[in-house]
Amino acid sequence: MNEQDYLPELRKTVEKEIKIIKEIAELFRNSEKSSPEERKMVNSHIDSLKGLLRRTGDEVSSIVEDMAMLRPLQSSIESIPLEHPNIPPTVKLKKIKAKIVKAPEPSPYSKGFAKQIGITELERKIVKRLKKKEAVKTKRSEKKASRYVSTATKIFGNTAAKLDSRQIFMTMRRDLLQANLEFIPKTYISLIFFTTMIAAIVALFIFVFLLFFSLSVEWPILRDAVEGIGARAMKTFWVLFAIPLATFLIMYIYPSLEKRHRGNKIDQELPFATIHMAAIAGSLVEPSKMFNILISTKEYPYLEKELTKLINEINVYGYDLMTALRNTAFNSPSQRLGEVFNGLATTINSGGSLEEFFDKRAQGLLFDYRLERERYAKTAETFMDIYISLVIAAPMILMLLLIMMKISGLGISLSTSAITLIMILGVAAINAVFLVFLQLKQPSG
């Protein structure tokens, strides 16, 4: 074999060695951002590449040794005289012109790359997945207060700021925070006063209307008032107080109702989310990243808001994980979720097993879930019997009683249309009451 045969082989071997070194360096950089399981796999690949690099280096050494036994390569030269007092003028320096061609770097995404550096196709795909960087899309949304809320704040903002710290609104402040309503206490108190004021104006119009007109169960329903204004005012003055007071009470207790509703929804999602967290904890993921994984699944919409509050406690406010867990547990609308967060903080602080903690907690939550479902099924059966008695039997008996009273002339004498209207309204009211009651009795787990 002459020197022309050694040169392409040497260049090919050196290029192979460069590829291996670049791949090892790239794997080292990506291993810092990988999970523990992927890091183990990458380290095994690096070890195999190191062995391949040693073998390739031995090949380069053997080729260079073989080339040293041959004569130098011929090339175009130029004679350059050396002007030095210690060197004879007949000595000339030979300058070799060599053209350096840079070999194209192999792409790890090509199918031939795996064979060139001696790794399997599966390993090449894993390296490709590690190198792939997903573009992070950030969504920025800005919500502005509605005109209704802005008007309420302008009118009653100063009054609400003075009453914000009063004892009467302390419970409402906490309910407002736990219900995740997008209002600060000052704004919501202003909204209560403004809505109550509008209700008082509506009540005044209704009061004036009832002074001149009266309502009847018989047709026509709306009639002119036959009594004097004074007598009508004594009968209908309660409207001026009932409507604003009812509006104020509804607005006041609404945060507590919303808090209870969200707590029930979170309790419904919590058993399955706990099972999910147990599976994630078994893969030795950092606890704070476990909540990000749950949020990214979009399977727990109500629990997602509480987990987002927890992540904000860490990333925005700078609290450590244990403090953030206890703060979120204190402000959570669900008592069960608060117990899970407090237990998780204690387990992390004591160095316990997160997988075992979530397994035990999931078993207890699933047991409560099944128990409440069975209790709800039995309650629904009982109310079904009551509903049949009230909606089917009771209206028929009441209708027969009213018709007999009309025929005999005893007691209240109503027309047929009035009896029909009473029956329709009664059945509709009973249905509405049962729907609300069943909704309130729906199991929370």
Q: Shape from CA axes?
A: elongated
Q: How many separate domains?
A: 4
Please describe the biggest sheet, giving its number of strands, its sense, and whether it closes into a barrel. Answer: 2 strands, antiparallel
How many DSSP H or I helices? 15
E-strand count? 4
What is the rounded Rg?
41 Å
Description:
By secondary structure, the chain is mainly alpha-helical. It folds into four domains: 3-131, no CATH class; 147-262, no CATH class; 285-352; 375-445. 71% of the residues lie in helices and 4% in strands. The chain has 15 helices and four strands. It has helices at residues 3-31, 36-68, 111-117, 121-131, 147-163, 170-178, 185-212, 229-236, 239-281, 287-297, 301-315, 321-330, 335-350, 354-408, 416-440; strands at 77-81, 92-96, 213-215, 222-224. A two-stranded antiparallel sheet has the order 1-2. α1 (3-31) runs antiparallel to α2 (36-68), α7 runs antiparallel to α9 (239-281) and α9 (239-281) packs across α10. The chain starts with a helix and ends in a 5-residue tail after the last helix. The model is unreliable at 75-87 and 90-95 (pLDDT under 50).
